[in-house]
Amino acid sequence: MTASPPPPRLPADLAAGLRADLAAGYTRDAVEDALGPVATAALSREEPVPARRATARSAAPAAVLARLLVLGLPVRRAALDAALPRTGTAGAVAAGLVVAAGQGPDDEVRGLVDLRPYEVSDDAGETRWWVASDLGELATGHSLRADHVLGIGGASLTLARTTVRDHRPRVLDLGTGCGIQALHAHRHADHVVATDVSRRALDFAAFNAALAGTAFDLREGSLLEPVRGERFDLVVSNPPFVITPPAAHAAGLPVMEYRDGAKPGDSLVGDLVAGLGDHLAPGGVAQLLGNWEHHSGEGWRERVGGWLAAAGTDGWVVQREVQDPAEYAHTWLRDGGLRPGSPLFDAALEAWLDDFEARGVEAVGFGYVLLRRPAAASTTPWRRLEEVDAPVHRPLGGHVTAVLLAQEWLATHDDAALAATHLVVADDVTEERYLRPGEQDPRVLQLRQGEGFGRTYRPGTLVAGAVGACDGELTLGQIVGGLAALLDQPADAVAAEVLPAARDLLLDGFLRLA
Question: To 10 degrees, the CA torsion angle through 338, 342, 343, 348?
């Protein structure tokens, strides 16, 4: 395998012109229009043939640039000059995006990096960037190099959608890769520090920041080493959490910097969670993705709960998916470009299964970890470990912020204060009733959340009545009293059922303070 091409570097005098060229002809909508719906859908499944055919027939800037910088196919110099009228091929060469065979209009130009439009719409607003990374297997035709810098994948999008987006003075993007989390953070932070063990990744992050018209405080080093002694108001991280046994590497599986940590099992994530507590300022939040092992005789909540205890902070863990050992190993072998049935695939799979079996690993969970250092000292840290497997395609940052604010309020207000509070039903909540034809009363009543994690809640009669009356006019205590009188029940008994449910519904976002 040939060596990796040098990472791109954007000269200051080219940044504005390149940004303008890309904005004029290389947007997400322009690419989809150039490819058409069939090729766009196929490319999302990593099937490049329809996109190759579509881009071969079009001279539109989006088609030329997608062919060159996504599919990794050559284009004529004249076509690239037309697609980038301000900077031209010469500018793209100077930025390290392409290499040109010659100066003639028909000479071949080849892409050196993957560059794609990325459009953002979240709690911080809307914007548009172009994000460079290494060309992938789809474009190069060979397996990924050990120093491969990954572009925007599913995990990156998941973390970006989940991150809180209120103003944070100092933000740390730990393991920045191509810099996508740092790009998100710079819109609502005063200062962004981005770290990575890979110098190549930091160079890509610097390029992407320059192309976006900003800059980060970039530091090379492993995990928390580059920020020793510092504290932050927000830490985001998509760390190299993949659990890869050393025997798999001994069998020939390459070490991938972007995903393979240098610690056994899931200890990298465990050690990171435990260490992050000392790096959070009062009121600071850390959000990261991770894997954790399910061991025989030990619940995953017990295992991950130990990490939270070591951090010494509030903690909220959401397990989104669980894979058995064979499925987990298969996922990451395919991610590394190997195909089932090949000698290396089978040898590495054997090593993975041997390692899991020897250590009593029955499954691997994947999800989100959130830590928070309360602004005021608390005697009892808040801990929540749960499983939520409904698909989430919308930004969650605003919901996460609301949950944290609700938890802070609930922690400092007893039931008497809650009863004196005016509550309203959140705008995204709907009520569903299920009943047989001809019946007057529903057999099932369910509240459904349209935003957030899309939770559902089945209230009893008293709680359903209380929620229905939460329009901000009456206090919750007045609603409880009214229900008690209407149903001829003791007010204390109604309160004993309604108040704990109201706390749960506030925490999950079904209700909010008026």
Answer: 40
Quote the pTM value: 0.93
Question: Whose CA is closest to 272, among 308, 244, 319, 299?
Answer: 308
Cα(148)–Cα(422) distance, integer angstroms:
54
Amino acid at position 224, single letter: L
The C-alpha angle 26, 31, 36, rounded to 5 degrees, equals: 160
Can you name the residues that pair with 285 across neighbouring β-strands? 234, 372
Q: How many CB atoms lie within 10 A of CB 342?
A: 11
pLDDT by residue, tens only, the chain of 514 residues: 567 899 999 999 999 999 999 999 999 999 999 999 999 999 999 899 999 999 999 999 999 999 999 999 999 999 999 999 999 999 999 999 999 999 999 999 999 999 999 998 877 778 999 999 999 888 888 878 889 999 999 999 999 999 999 999 999 999 999 999 999 999 999 999 999 999 999 999 999 999 999 999 999 999 999 999 999 999 999 999 999 998 888 888 888 899 998 889 999 999 999 999 999 999 999 999 999 999 999 999 999 999 999 999 999 999 999 999 999 999 999 887 788 999 999 999 999 999 999 999 999 999 999 999 998 776 689 999 999 987 777 889 999 999 999 999 999 999 999 999 999 999 999 999 888 888 888 888 999 999 999 999 999 999 999 999 999 999 999 999 999 999 999 999 999 999 999 999 999 999 999 9
Alpha-carbon distance 428 to 510, whole Å?
8
Structure tokens at 141: 């035709």
| Beta strands 383-387; 422-425: pairing state | unpaired
Q: Hey, what amino acid is at 398?
A: G
For residues 54 and 448, what is the distance between their CA atoms, to the nearest angstrom?
43
Coil, strand or helix at 212: coil
Contact 163, 184 (CB under 8 A): yes
With a CB cutoff of 8 Å and minimum separation 6, the contacts of 37 are: none
Beta carbons within 10 angstroms of residue 454's beta carbon: 15
| CA 413 from centre of chain | 33
In the three-class reduction of DSSP (H, G, I as helix; E, B as strand; rest coil), residue 222 is classed as: coil
> Crossing angle, helix 461-468 and helix 491-508, to 10 degrees?
70
